[in-house]
Amino acid sequence: MRLRFSRGVITIAIIVVVLAVGISVGLYHLLKKATPLAVPEAHCTVRTPDGELYLSPEQAQISATIAAVAARRRLPERAVVIAYATALQESKLENLDYGDRDSVGVFQQRESQGWGSKKQLMDPVYATNKFFAALVKVKNYRKIPLAEAAQAVQRSAGGYAYAPHESDGKILAGGFTGRVPQAVHCWYPPGKSPVPQPKATDARKQLARALGSTVITTKKRGWLVAAWSVAHAEKYALNRVGYSGATWVNNVELEGWQTGGKSGTRQVDLS
C-alpha cells in the first residue's frame, strides 16, 4: 500500500532537516574555533645529528646551565657529555632536594663529603662548578671511558651506571653548547609563566651567573646563549628569541626555529 503525505507534513520534514544541517554546521565551526580542552604541558626538544630528546623545562634549564658553566671554564665538549651523563643518572637532570643520606641537587652531592652546604648544592651553577672542578683533576678524563671519569668524581656505589647515558649526553651537548645551531626548541602555555611580562634583563643577569661575560664572540657561543634563552623562556616569560637570521617563537603549532629575524651574529634578541 502506497503511503501519501500531505504537503504540510512534507514541509515540516524539510524544515527539520534544514535546521539539523544548520545546527550541525554551526557546531562544527564553533568547536573548530574553540580552545582545545587538553592544553599540552610545557616541554622542550633537543634535535641534533646524534638524535632527539624530550625534556621538561626544568631539565632543559639545568642542561643549559651546565653548558654555560662549562663554557665559562673553557672546558671541552667531552667534559659536558660526562656532566650530562652523571646528572642523568643521579637526578634525571632535576634539582632534587633529597637523595641517599644527605645527597641533594643535580649531581646528588653530599654536604658531609665536603661538597658544600645544602643551600649551595641546591644552586645548579654552584653544583656544576664543583663537579667540573673535581672532573678536571681526574687524570686523562678526556680519554678514559666516561663511566670511569664520572665515578672518579662521584665515588658512587654503582659507577657502571653512568655509561648508558653517554649517547643522551652527546645529544644534549651538541645542542646546548651551541655546536649544533637551532637544536633547542621549547613551548609553554601562554600566561603560565611565573612573571607577568617578558624579563629579558633578568634572563641576561642569570645567564651571566653561569656564563660570565655574555658578550658573543663566536657563532657557537651565540647559539649557546640562544639555547639557554629558549630553555629559560617560561621562567622569564620570553616569547621570542632571535639569532643569526633565525627565530624561535613560543607557538605550539610551530616546530623548531623559523627563518627570519636579524642576520647579525653579535647579539641574541630577546622579547
Could you give the topology of this structure?
Layout: H1 7-33, E1 43-48, E2 51-55, H2 57-72, H3 77-91, E3 103-104, E4 109-110, H4 118-121, H5 124-135, H6 146-154, H7 166-176, E5 184-187, H8 200-211, H9 219-231, E6 240-243, E7 246-249, E8 258-259, E9 269-270
Helix pairs in contact: 2-3, 2-5, 2-9, 3-6, 3-7
Tags for this entry?
alpha+beta, 4-stranded antiparallel sheet, 271 residues, 44% helix, globular, 9 helices, 3-stranded antiparallel sheet, 11% strand
Question: Quick recap of the structure?
Answer:
Helix content is 44%, strand content 11%.
Can you describe this structure?
By secondary structure, the chain is an alpha+beta fold. The protein has one domain. Helix content is 44%, strand content 11%. It contains nine helices and nine strands. The chain has helices spanning 7-33, 57-72, 77-91, 118-121, 124-135, 146-154, 166-176, 200-211, 219-231; strands spanning 43-48, 51-55, 103-104, 109-110, 184-187, 240-243, 246-249, 258-259, 269-270. The strands form three sheets. It has a four-stranded antiparallel beta sheet with strand order 8-7-6-9, covered by helices on one side. A three-stranded antiparallel beta sheet has the order 2-1-5. Strand 7 and strand 8 form a beta hairpin. Helix 2 packs across helix 5 (124-135). The N and C termini lie far apart (77 Å). 39% of the residues are buried.
